[in-house]
Design brief:
Elements lengths: L19 H4 L5 H13 L1 E5 L5 H12 L5 H8 L8 E2 L6 H7 L2 H11 L3 E9 L15 E3 L4 E7 L10 E3 L11 H4 L8 H18 L5 E2 L6 E6 L4 E3 L11 E8 L3 E3 L13 E2 L2 E2 L4 E2 L2 E3 L2 E3 L15 H23 L3 H7 L1 H6 L3 H12 L5
Antiparallel strand pairs: 1-8, 2-3, 3-10, 4-11, 5-8, 5-10, 6-7, 6-9, 11-12, 13-14, 15-16
Bound molecules: 2-oxoglutaric acid and fe (ii) ion (FE2).
2-oxoglutaric acid binds next to β3, β5, β9 and β10.
């Protein structure tokens, strides 16, 4: 499985490959179905392939419950659309490790992508993340493109009430948003502004292409695989008395270069290259380009200093509000001329009417039209 099958296009994941039917002709029906779903929709659902999965999920819930402050979440984080998470608990909790390294999952991923999969990061959530729609490729990309995915496992049923995972079917066809596309420089720039611009741009992609986000109404023990470019996030966690226990494991594939577009200005010579940790082998995977090793970067392009305490909360609230305003403006068809006519002060100030609405008008309750 480690070596890609011989083809003229070894850099395209098998599920998207022009010869995918031929490449997968000997694969079992589940693998063929997952490949087809990833190709068509950008995601695929499986029953998690471990007969002891109920016990593992129970073990994780019991081990982690005392480590989360649910009161703080309800009072401070939930109102600003934030969640709770613990990263890389595979190092401490055996059940998290076992889920991340499940052999059948590795077999399915390796077959449908055509390179050997390895898990490099886990996140455990007790409640919904309420994250806005995004593509993981902004943070975890590969060369060749597309060799990354997430496998999200529901420890309990998820629906409209408890912040189910959401995704925009078909959005895996949208381009990787490198910094040149969003007009922001990573090196020497403001990483928070860049992330805000990215969040707006993903919303533009969803609205502009007419995608309709759906939620994953999962049964306990079901898992959703998303491909690197699928726009996904967490829906509103409406009922704060409910939980949304879940684990996501992020996977890369061997023999790639691993990089972070958000931290890179490639054509100015700054590529933030990673050496992701292979949770199965316990060793880092070095990046390679066409078979030759590429050293990992020392540190990302320096993000702007992070403010402390309630300044962080204020910043999170401000970004959440602006993203919401941007979404409303898109959904209702912002009319620039009508906004200027109704708001002479905006015309006089010379600022962009849409930016004014997103930054001020929305909060001040000014009418869109
Ligand atoms: O669990 C969620 O709501 C989203 C998680 C996610 O986007 C991720 O881990 O990449
Ligand atoms: Fe994500």
């Amino acid at each position: 499985m480690a070596t890609p099958k011989e083809t003229n296009l070894p850099g395209i994941p098998t599920f998207d490959h022009p010869q995918r039917d031929d490449l997968l002709k000997d694969a079992d029906p589940e693998i063929q179905r997952v490949a087809e779903d990833l190709h068509r929709d950008g995601y695929a659902v499986i029953d998690f392939p471990d007969p002891g999965i109920d016990g593992l999920m129970e073990e994780i819930r019991t081990a982690l419950t005392p480590r989360f402050d649910f009161g703080h979440w309800r009072e401070k984080l939930w109102p600003v659309s934030d969640g709770l998470r613990l990263q890389d608990l595979w190092q401490e909790v055996e059940a998290v490790h076992r889920i991340a390294c499940n052999e059948r999952v590795l077999q399915i991923l390796s077959a449908v992508f055509g390179r050997k999969a390895f898990p490099f990061q886990t996140l455990n959530f007790p409640v919904g993340t309420q994250q806005t729609l995004h593509s993981d490729a902004a943070f975890f990309s590969s060369v060749p493109d597309g060799f990354m995915c997430g496998v999200w496992l529901a420890f309990e049923e998820t629906d409209e009430g408890n912040g189910a995972l959401q995704y925009a079917p078909g959005s895996h066809r949208t381009p990787l948003l490198t910094n040149d596309l969003i007009g922001m420089r990573a090196t020497g720039g403001d990483q928070r502004k860049l992330q805000e611009r990215l969040a707006f741009a993903w919303q533009d992609l969803v609205h502009g292409n007419g995608y309709s986000p759906e939620i994953f109404k999962a049964k306990k023990g079901q898992a959703l695989i998303w491909s690197a470019h699928l726009l996904h996030g967490g829906s509103r966690h409406a009922d704060i008395d409910r939980t949304r226990w879940s684990q996501v494991t992020h996977y890369y594939f061997e023999d790639c270069l691993y990089w972070t577009p958000s931290y890179s200005d490639v054509f100015e010579g700054h590529t933030y290259v990673r050496a992701p940790f292979n949770i199965v082998t316990g060793e880092s995977e070095e990046s390679t380009y066409l078979g030759r090793s590429v050293p990992a970067s020392e540190s990302p392009a320096k993000p702007a200093a992070r403010p402390a305490g309630n300044l962080v909360e204020k910043a999170v609230r401000r970004v959440a509000r602006r993203v919401a305003a941007h979404s409303v403006a898109l959904a209702e068809g912002f009319d620039r001329e009508a906004y200027l006519a109704a708001n002479p002060d905006v015309r006089e100030s010379g600022v962009s009417p849409k930016q004014h609405w997103i930054r001020h008008g929305y909060r001040e309750g000014r009418k869109l039209r």
